[in-house]
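Work Package 3 (structural annotation) set out to generate three-dimensional models for the target panel prioritized at the project kickoff. During this period the team completed the workflow that converts sequence records into discrete structure tokens, so that structures can be stored uniformly alongside our sequence database. As a representative example, we reproduce one entry of 189 residues exactly as it appears in the project archive.
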Amino acid sequence: VVYAKATPAIPTSINCKPFIMQNYGKILADCSTFRNFTMHSCCQPHERCHDQLLFMTKEQNYIFEMPLKVRDYEVDSQGIVNNANYLHYLEHTRHEFCEKKGFTFRDMQKEGIDPVVSRIEIDYHTPLRLGQTMTSKLWIERRGARFIFHQDIFTEDESIAISALVTIVSIENGKLSRGETIAKAFGLT
């Protein structure tokens, strides 16, 4: 998390996007900032200031990304992805990331390690529709015994569809651990 001494106020009389581009390093880059970020008339109806800030502050931190496509059984009667399916997209991305790092869930289980989700926060921004392709991206931070997966899914035109924080803890041989083996595999030591 980037902390700044003073967060500049966004004047309502200017276009927010250039202002954010110039000042994003000074703006607090945590979830509470995104939720409280002001939306101005210059950004409506297609952009929200907090979406632009979210994308810009995380863009440089992604360590894994993969394409996905919306399948017919994932949409509801309105033709948009049912919100529960985003959990599957997020989990699939984490599993593929682990495989790329050479430490699959099968490998973890053989060593008596069970990474489990302890918390998920999802903010829905733009709905995905049948046949649409998306890009799922993630980066990780470690907070004590917790691994925080920052996961975002983007539409074809790079609009953010969802942003999520997924907290994982490690159970080793039936007991909560600090997750040193996982941290080493992910390069977080």
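The chain has six helices and six strands.
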